[in-house]
Write a structure and sequence with these properties.
With 448 residues, the protein is mostly helical. Helices cover 67% and strands 0% of the residues. The structure holds protoporphyrin IX containing FE. Protoporphyrin IX containing FE binds next to α3, α6, α7 and α10.
Length: 448
């Protein structure tokens, strides 16, 4: 006990010294209420952790990787023997896996880390979608977040080509056919990505985008995203209360938990767990390199992108869906996500009060999962309109029925509860101050 007291006192003294000499409290993010010590409030921070790991592991890989299609990587010649005629990009990757100490572990964690970052960004996005965090005043946070998602997917797309395997070259070409058909942006993107039309031109552009341009864009957008987060504070829990106050005052902030060291340590704890899991998975299931682009024995290699683009590849397999239609559908989804805060104008954030958006979000999510699995099981297999209707029809119908019934049931019970409580002047429960009471809610409800 004596030791614990001494330890805590010493720790406080050391921390006090660091705070005083660095002025840290001034540049730390704002304090947060106690109820935010739950992983669901920090899904964005987990994406940042994943991004930081990608930057560190990517820089280490850069020490060995050579972005060239020429068979000039001599070290690879020694390591790979007969494979010495393969492109340097592939060969240097081969070298990392087989000759660099811990190279395979490093490369595998970079690859799985990319999957994890995209997955976590999806979780962060869907959490925000369902809990209505995009509502005022966080519209711009949402829009910048949507751009971050696009850049993150762009990082995945450009990184996929770098080992220069036959499978990644095939998939990149399909992706490019789609990208250059984008309305307005396509004609600009074409020459920008394809460069002089040679394999080397394409690889150089993808490399530049992956290691410099997109990380810079991601860093700049992230800065804006976090600055907006800092300015509004964390979004309150979802509620049916249309008068919910959605920002804390400075006075309230003073009573909250400081970001440094408490919240930072909380996030760091999760970051360490993340890295441990990544290393464990990479050690148990290390990534192996498929054959190189241009290998004559690889003529029959299937064209397959990474999992997060499988759904678009499946879409192109639908009979009658041309690349233009696939690009059109993707553009509509992107625009929907980007402008969602201006489409969903009601003031209630709880999903039960937003049946239309609940239906659209869930349908998109289920469609994404279904088509990803479908694309993985039957890549390149053409699908008839009948089969599409058979698979997707029940999904939409089930969602509509489920959300409709739930909404109808909830409306009935909510009205009854409001009627019962409005006479009592009860305060709405919940840790976040709303400044409103149930009668005020009932009144607002009558008006909106
Ligand atoms: C690379 C991708 C992204 C990164 C690194 C990122 C990072 C962050 C961070 C660190 C926060 C602070 C709170 C938290 O940790 O959750 C945050 C909040 C937020 N993000 Fe993201 N984000 C990303 C993508 C997105 C996407 C795709 C959207 C939505 C389209 C989005 C919308 C928001 C919103 C609305 C907030 C405020 C939420 C709140 O106050 O609780 N972000 N993000």
């Amino acid at each position: 006990m004596g030791f614990e007291r001494w330890f805590n006192r010493t720790l406080n003294q050391v921390w006090g010294f660091v705070e005083d000499r660095t002025g840290m409290p001034k540049w730390a993010l704002r304090p947060q209420p106690e109820f935010t010590f739950k992983p669901s409030y920090w899904t964005g921070a987990f994406v940042v952790n994943a991004f930081l790991y990608q930057v560190i592991s990517g820089l280490l890989l850069l020490l060995y990787y050579q972005p060239s299609v020429n068979p000039t990587y001599t070290a690879c010649g020694q390591a790979a023997g007969t494979l010495s005629s393969s492109p340097a990009a592939w060969c240097s990757t081969y070298y990392i896996i087989h000759s660099v100490p811990m190279g395979q572990l490093l490369l595998s964690t970079h690859l799985y880390g990319a999957y994890a970052m995209i997955f976590l960004a999806f979780v962060h996005f869907y959490r925000g979608y369902y809990l209505g965090v995009y509502k005022a005043p966080r519209e711009f946070s949402w829009m910048v977040g949507s751009l971050l998602m696009l850049v993150t997917l762009g990082m995945g797309f450009t990184g996929y080509l770098l080992p220069y395997t036959q499978i990644s070259l095939n998939a990149t070409n399909v992706g490019l056919v789609l990208a250059i058909r984008l309305p307005y942006a396509g004609p600009l993107l074409g020459p920008l990505i394809l460069s002089d039309g040679t394999g080397q031109g394409l690889l150089s552009r993808m490399f530049a985008a992956h290691v410099l341009l997109l990380p810079l864009a991601l860093g700049a957008l992230l800065y804006a995203h976090i600055a907006l987060f800092e300015s509004h504070g964390i979004a309150p829990p979802a509620t049916s209360d249309p008068l919910q106050r959605r920002r804390f005052t400075e006075e309230e902030d003073k009573k909250h938990v400081p970001f440094m060291p408490h919240i930072l340590f909380y996030i760091t704890k999760w970051a360490l767990l993340y890295i441990g899991l990544l290393l464990g998975l990479a050690a148990l299931w290390p990534w192996t390199l498929p054959t190189y682009a241009g290998d004559l024995s690889a003529a029959g290699v299937v064209t397959e992108p990474d999992w997060y683009f499988l759904w678009v590849f499946k879409l192109v397999d639908f009979e009658g869906v041309t690349p233009v239609i696939a690009v059109g559908v993707t553009t509509v989804i992107i625009l929907y996500v980007l402008f969602l805060p201006f489409l969903d104008r009601s003031k209630r954030t709880h999903p039960r009060d937003r049946p239309v958006f609940l239906f659209i979000g869930s349908s998109l999510l289920e469609m994404f999962v279904l088509m990803t699995v479908w694309g993985g099981l039957t890549p390149g297999v053409s699908i008839s309109p009948m089969l599409v209707a058979e698979r997707l029809g029940p999904l939409f119908a089930f969602n509509a029925l489920f959300v409709g019934l739930f909404y109808w049931r909830y409306q009935k019970s909510y009205r009854a509860r409001l009627a019962a409580q409005s006479g009592m002047g009860a305060q709405r429960p919940g840790a976040y101050p709303t400044g409103t009471s149930m009668p005020a809610v009932a009144e607002a409800r009558a008006h909106d």
